[in-house]
Write a structure and sequence with these properties.
Blueprint lengths: L1 H22 L3 E9 L1 H7 L6 H6 L4 E9 L3 E11 L10 E5 L10 E5 L4 E8 L2 E7 L30 E13 L2 E16 L2 E14 L17 E7 L2 E10 L14 E2 L2 H20 L8
Parallel strand pairs: 7-13
Antiparallel strand pairs: 1-2, 1-12, 2-3, 3-4, 3-5, 5-6, 6-7, 8-9, 9-10, 10-11, 11-12
Length: about 290
């Protein structure tokens, strides 16, 4: 009889564990990104005068959300909206996804886990585009997208050449939202022309990741080495997971919108350069006034 009772409890525990695992195959992870523009600029070797410091925006914090299912995920900014009915459960405020509303390049990221594909969705020149991408490790140029290609000096602005990348796996671990995370230090060493002087800039970023979620992810697709990244800590910029909620997630919430227009990386860079050239003409073209 004792053996029968023990066997019964063992089966019950297995069923409970199986049900728990089934419930934890989808849910939402809340992230928080904090950016200090002055720290970012000084970290890139730019010396700021008191007048410049006064014009730089103050430190800001933005919420993001990762929605995931067993096969897909989406990551984008969220915003707090006032709930007139008080039904949000948070003091009269409700939480909603916000397309292009939360910094980080104002992009949406859609992941498919089986084939490790990543789709970026963004607005550029009043058009919504999508671009096929992938998780990787590449440098973020100050004021622009990631790039690892050498570019020529045009005589006006010297674009930094491909930096040296050093990845250091440490023995450090810490718990983030209940998951044991491992630390990777990433060092980017690059040369930049700043105010007519060539300087060597060293950027060190901490990446904290876990293998326990069972999928690959990073809140910054260009800062990924392994597993699901739950924290990225750099100079003047920090993104960290704050909470996790296991719940049902609809497939429509983790599927990229079909209305966007496909664009290649090369075409994107061409369009972005045209946009930046337009900004330079408006703000620094000797017109003596700001455009809107």
């Amino acid at each position: 009889m004792k053996k029968i009772i023990l066997a019964f409890f063992a089966i019950a525990l297995l069923n409970v564990d199986a049900n728990a695992q089934k419930k934890k195959t989808s849910g939402a992870i809340e992230f928080e990104t904090t950016i200090d523009p002055s720290a970012v600029m000084t970290g890139n070797g730019i010396q700021l005068s008191p007048e410049m410091m006064a014009r730089i925006p103050s430190k800001s914090t933005s919420p993001f959300e990762l929605l995931f299912t067993p096969t897909q995920a989406s990551y984008m900014g969220v915003q707090e909206t006032e709930d007139s009915n008080g039904g949000g459960g948070g003091g009269g405020f409700a939480r909603m996804m916000s397309r292009f509303g939360g910094g980080a390049g104002s992009r949406e990221y859609y992941y498919t886990f089986p084939d490790k594909k990543l789709t970026e969705v963004f607005d550029l020149s009043d058009t919504t585009y999508y671009m096929q991408s992938k998780l990787n490790l590449s440098p973020m140029l100050f004021g622009g997208r990631t790039s690892g290609r050498n570019q020529k000096d045009t005589g006006a602005v010297k674009t930094p050449v491909a930096p040296k990348i050093e990845v250091i796996k440490t023995d450090s671990t810490k718990e983030i939202i209940g998951f044991k995370c491992k630390q990777v230090l990433v060092k980017f060493t690059r040369k930049m022309d700043i105010l007519g002087r060539e300087r060597e800039i060293v950027e060190e970023t901490q990446i904290w990741y876990t293998d326990d979620l069972g999928f690959d992810f990073s809140p910054n697709p260009s800062m990924w080495t392994q597993g699901a990244v739950l924290a990225i800590i750099g100079k003047g910029s920090t993104t960290i997971a704050k909470s996790i909620d296991y719940r049902h997630v609809a497939s429509s919430d983790v599927t990229a919108p079909k209305r966007a227009t496909l664009i290649t990386q090369q075409d994107y860079e061409t369009k972005q350069k045209a946009v930046m050239a337009g900004y330079r003409n408006r703000f620094g073209g000797g017109q003596g006034r700001r455009g809107n």
